[in-house]
Amino acid sequence: MDFAVYQLRSFWEVARTGSLTKSAKNLGYSQSSITAHVRSLESRVGVPLFYRLPHGVRLTAAGETFQSYVGKIFNVMDEMSTALKNNGEATGRVVVGATALLMEYEMEGLVRECRYRYPHVQVSLKVMTSKDVEKAVASGGVDIGLTLACGQGEAPAGVLRQALFPVPFVPVGAPGMQSGPAPRTVERVLVVDPDCASQEVLLRHLASVQESVPSLMETGSTRSALGLAGAGLGVAMVPEAAVDGAAGPAGPVVLEDLPRASVHVQALWSGDGWLSPAVSAFLDLARRARGSHVRPPHGERGAADAADGAADAADAGADEGGQGVSGAAAPVMV
Questions:
Q1: For residues 118-147, b (16+ Cβ closer than 10 Å) or e, as one string?
Q2: Do the beta carbons of residue 159 and residue 282 sit within 8 Å?
Q3: Contact criterion met (CB below 8 Å) for 329 and 163
């Protein structure tokens, strides 16, 4: 279907005001021109877009659907205009939903890197559970979702996903547990996000080696989980990078007789439409991330940038050869 921008603007104004006369005055057209614009659109889509009432007009169900897509078209046009004014540099806002675990140990680095590389991109963060992240991506509540996953799993229809980088998890408990009698019985497991894939390995192991099922206690944050584990109130599965910062005489220790886990940070985004420059920029940055456990010190920025430059060159060559985006594995549509 071919639509002229002036026709879409006429439709938008009529939908906003509910009046052909007011719309004509606001846009500087004659009423007959506005009427012609609307009729031309209705002829192209094949259905009425407005109910004609004695005093004005009202959108039909088809008109409401059409209005939502016209809004998206105008948003894309505005973003294109802004990007061109900034010489093609990525600009705009991206809303990222992530689990508490990722907010504590991965998001700070990503946001800082985004600010460094894309100063005109505004990142807004939302803390969610793993299940809520998936729902928010599917509904459009967030532009990008970041969760932890052990495998492909299932995601809502119309959502694209891609594994980014691994995060090693280790089981921790009070110092006295390491030297206690074996096998021990774990009575309580401390969890930050009960839906997080990192918890599955520990819970499956405990179910196979002890008769009693441990209770679960949600801690709200990794810091709380570490403190409670160090105090002997349970066992927690936490990112290995978090244990280094909690080391000390009264801090938790890694329990070597319990299994470790390696899970991947997973990015999710909508596969139903066009991605804005801001969303594309942040997603590309997330694809290149290496994770907090291997992130170079700040003083090594130059080396990291050189490595990224080499990666850019390799990606460009791959794109020319039809090998995909950023040299990463192709996303899976679910």
A1: beebebebebbbbebbbbbbbeeebbbbbb
A2: no
A3: yes
pLDDT digits (tens, 9 = 90+) for 181-225: 556 788 899 988 888 888 888 888 888 888 888 899 998 888 899
Main-chain dihedrals φ then ψ at residue 216, nearest 5 degrees: -110, 135
CA of 27: how far to CAs of 33, 63, 71, 265, in Å?
Answer: 11, 20, 17, 49
CA distances from 224 to 172, 215, 240, 242 (A): 13, 17, 15, 11
Does residue 4 come out as left (phi exceeding 0), alpha (psi in the -120 to 50 range) or beta?
beta
**Alpha-carbon gap, residue 203 to 299, rounded angstroms:** 40
Torsion sign across C-alpha atoms 276, 277, 278, 280: positive
Check if the beta carbon of residue 136 is closer than 8 Å to that of residue 95: no
Contact 266, 163 (CB under 8 A): yes
Residue type, position 235, single letter: V
Residues of the chain short of pLDDT 50, as ranges, are 293-334
Give the C-alpha separation, 119 to 90, whole Å: 9
User: pTM value?
Assistant: 0.61
Contact at 8 Å (CB) between 263 and 197?
Answer: yes
CA distance 23 to 275: 31
d(CA 126, CA 143): 11
Domains and CATH numbers, the chain: 5-85 (1.10.10.10), 92-167+265-333 (3.40.190.10), 168-262 (3.40.190.10)
